[in-house]
Design brief:
By secondary structure, the protein is mainly α. It has two domains: 62 residues; 139 residues, no CATH class. It is 70% helix and 0% strand. It is built from ten helices and no strands. The chain is elongated and about 95 Å long. The C terminus is likely disordered. It comes from Streptomyces cinerochromogenes.
Length: 226
């Protein structure tokens, strides 16, 4: 075998080895990226994968794009007066639910959109973009906003407010409360997302006051009066 042929074989073998190594590196980075996204987005990751019919790569591309667009967003803090004002408005929404469930849910939807905009997220008029930004920083609870927005929109069709309709409205409002608590907290959304269920304890006196006035109608069906 000539020296030239031996050198050629060595070069080919080296190219094959380098190619395999590069493929392993890329694959490893993809796995790490997926793990990071799953940890960052939590339930929103699973929801996005389901929306893409189980296509994990497509879901991760979408989530990575959200992170690229909104990951650097810094929430504007609320002062004590603002926090109390929003807590009082949410309490009023809950009280309104007793007599007008659908109107109360629509109010909650508008209030969340306004509050998110005040905290520095895209304006509520750009709902999808606002929701995408919220999902980056409040992944554990953004679906509550999605749900209350969907139910509030469905209410425009004139669905009955009794029976199962009222139960759906009640559940949506209760789910949305978690995001409201996040947005009125003094802690950052990213830290709260990692805290899981431990974050449910109210950190401020104003939020404790608001919770103490949560109408009983949000927890049980109201008996029909004769």
């Amino acid at each position: 075998m000539s020296t030239g042929l031996i050198i050629l074989l060595i070069v080919i073998a080296a190219v094959v080895v380098l190619g395999a190594a590069a493929a392993l590196v890329v694959r490893g980075r993809g796995r790490r990226g997926g793990t990071s996204l799953k940890r960052r987005f939590g339930p929103e990751y699973e929801r996005t994968v389901a929306l893409h019919d189980g296509d994990t790569e497509a879901a991760e591309r979408e989530l990575a794009e959200r992170l690229e667009r909104h990951g650097d967003l810094r929430e504007r803090p609320l002062d004590g007066t603002e926090r109390q004002r929003y807590a009082d408005r949410w309490t009023a929404v809950q009280e309104h639910f007793v007599d007008s469930p659908r109107e109360a849910v629509a109010e909650a939807d508008r209030l969340l959109g306004e509050l998110a905009a005040v905290r520095g997220y895209p304006d509520g008029g750009r709902y999808e973009e606002q929701l995408a930004a919220l999902s980056v920083h409040h992944a554990d609870h953004v679906d509550g906003y999605r749900r209350v927005h969907r139910v509030a929109g469905a209410g425009a069709g004139g669905t009955s407010e009794t029976g199962a309709g009222t139960e759906e409205l009640r559940a949506a409002l209760l789910d949305a409360r978690a995001l409201f608590d996040d947005l009125t907290s003094t802690e950052s959304g990213r830290h709260r997302a990692s805290a899981g269920k431990d974050r449910q304890a109210p950190p401020t006196a104003s939020r404790s006051h608001a919770r103490s006035h949560m109408p009983w109608a949000l927890h049980r069906s109201r008996p029909k009066e004769s």
